[in-house]
From TrEMBL:
Pfam families in the cross-refs: 4HBT_2
InterPro entries linked: HotDog_dom_sf
Domain of life: Bacteria
Species name: Rhodococcus pseudokoreensis
SUPFAM superfamilies (alphabetical): Thioesterase/thiol ester dehydrase-isomerase
Record's protein name: Thioesterase family protein
Amino acid sequence: MTHDTDTQFPPRSATMSALVEWSDTDAAGHHHNSSILRWVEACEVRLYRQLGLLEHFPSMPRVQQVVNYTSKLWFGQEVTTTVRIQAVGRTSITFEFDVYGEEFDGAARVRAAHGTFTSVHVLPADTRATPWPDDILKLVDPHRVAPVAV
């Protein structure tokens, strides 16, 4: 059973929808590349909220991001963004994401962007990545933390 459907463990993905607003477009009339980053970040925050990690967000800075742009999105088009935990390392967590433009003006649903980003655990008074504490690890990768006997 996967983490996403296993009720014993927290979700490992989040999905949200938005509309391409006028401010999301550029002079060419389609979405500006930075819009993808905003939608992905908003979905990332949703996942942290679902996991109960929102208070830890400031100690999880992003250190790498790769975005592959594959299709244009248009003003008024609905956009669906999904962010998933891909891998959890000793000090880092890597996410993957997809951004889809939903059916619009007779055009079929299309993947507009996909990629990955990596964040690390950094204590507030530190400047280097540190290992994940167990309270965070049990939320992002519960199978790595030994269950407590009851």
